[in-house]
Amino acid sequence: MMSHTLYSYERLFGEAKIKNVSATVDGAQLPTFAIDSAHRSINIYAAGRETWTEADVRIDLDLPMQEIRSKFPPDFELRALFRVNCDATNLRVSNVVGIKGGTVTGTLTIRRDLFSQRAVIEAFVVAPVDDISDRILREAEPWTILFSQPPPREPAVGKKRKGRDVVQTVWVNFREPGPGLEFLMAHEREASFIDLTAKTPALYLNEGIDGYRVLLELSRPASRFEAALHDMETRRLAFAVWSGLLTASINAIEVDSDTNEVVMPDGWQGDALEILLPKMFPNETLRAAARNVVSRLADREFGMGFIQTTGQAAIGEMLGTSAVLKRHLNAFVEGRNDAGE
Asked: Which of 38, 181, 227, 285 is deepest in the core (most CB within 10 A)?
């Protein structure tokens, strides 16, 4: 099972949640509008503080106390670990607080000269397990703290950032696929087949279907009908590919057994996650988003469902599926009106 694959010891099932976050910057209280609980973010620069020296972030962590009391004796050494982590500078600041009730409060002091543009605030329930101190029993969904306005993004050079670089597209007749592709014969009635088991994922398109290749390679559709059919089929294929990449890639995220840090996969799985995770969790760093995924997957009942739902929504938005559908629906309605229907 997923939870036993990721962790070799028993963890808490109930939710740990960061709430009631506040901050002072050089002694002045940060305005409430700079703290977005819905998106789990603290935005210092948006509050007009571009130059500052030190910030104190106060965090309340709600705990599943009923489960804790049922699993551990009163004298069990259970603690809350609060941490702010900056990937750009590889700097961490942490604070460990003993747990005595259902809500525990921690404060993190951040020096501006030691951090870059953003950092991630994390909170964990930890305890000694198997003679190892501070094993993570439960993690809260992380927050992001923004110190300065991010620079405009420039196109990546020499890096895989598009679907066509992650997946190769191959036209083949599924009835007579040739050596090494005999498995496609079992799918000869299908228009496409996605293979995620190879070193490089492949989308096989069945040119044995009359007109299929012509449709997908249309550069100038001759009618509204051709345009609609072309656009919807290309997005159907892209949606299926990205959904498959998401499932295969999140299962390749690992957790270091010594440090409890997430380890991103290499190759096409890492490339796919670099594209998808920022779209699924736009207010989190890539590492924080990966930990969010790992945390969700530990919930065997609802975790994968949440990831699939969030992922499919992000993929649909990325591909512009609804916008394309609406455009063709408008043309469809106009055509019916012109025909007096």
From this structure: 285
